[in-house]
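re the bet — no i am not wrong, look at it urself. input seq straight from the record:
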Amino acid sequence: MARVWTTIGLLILSNIFMTFAWYGHLKDLKDRPWLGAAFFVFRSKLMGN
């Protein structure tokens, strides 16, 4: 049961970290138009799986 709570805790921490990382990089998105293309490629590959 401890393994389940450890997994849940790590997923929550990872989600919080990735949320801050994602919104942190969006502040500079206007200067980097290639990120939009990279995101499109990432989403298309994700949908393919």
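see?? The mean pLDDT is 77. told u. also Residues 2-48 form one domain. so pay up
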